[in-house]
Amino acid sequence: MSGRLTVKDSNIYGKGCFALTHFPARKKITLYEGELIKGSRKIQARLRRQAGSAIKIITIDADVAIDGAVGGNETAFINHSCDPNAFIRVVPGQKVAVFARRDIQPGEELTIDYRDPDHPEVCHCGADNCRSNRRRARAQSA
Predict the structure, then answer these.
(1) Rounded to whole angstroms, how far apart are CA atoms 66 and 58?
(2) CA separation for the pair 89, 47 (Å, rounded)
(3) What predicted TM-score, i.e. pTM, was given to this entire model?
(4) Which of 19, 21, 24, 34 could cross-link 72 (Cys pair, CB 3.0–4.6 Å)?
């Protein structure tokens, strides 16, 4: 693996990806690695197989995705946060890169915002601006 990241128990969900070194804001950390899946049917089948556990698939476009569960690196364990310290971008060559959104210190868990339209009712990210907290507050005031 990279020597700059490690996987260990997370307070957010299961295992997480943690920094072993300082990552400056807006700088590339590494690539999200894994098996390249081509074809929307293959992508959907893989998503269905992972639905009961942590999904490690990042979609590049409608017909291309990367499955971090197969041949992936530590980045396959990056958890969601509504206030993330990292973000991902598709880069040339059908690849996905992970960048620091702000300075990340050694020992910090890397997080990204999955931007899932079906964000779970119960989110464990712990962020002050957690969308699950806002949804619960609206429901209680209604």
Answers:
(1) 5
(2) 20
(3) 0.87
(4) 34
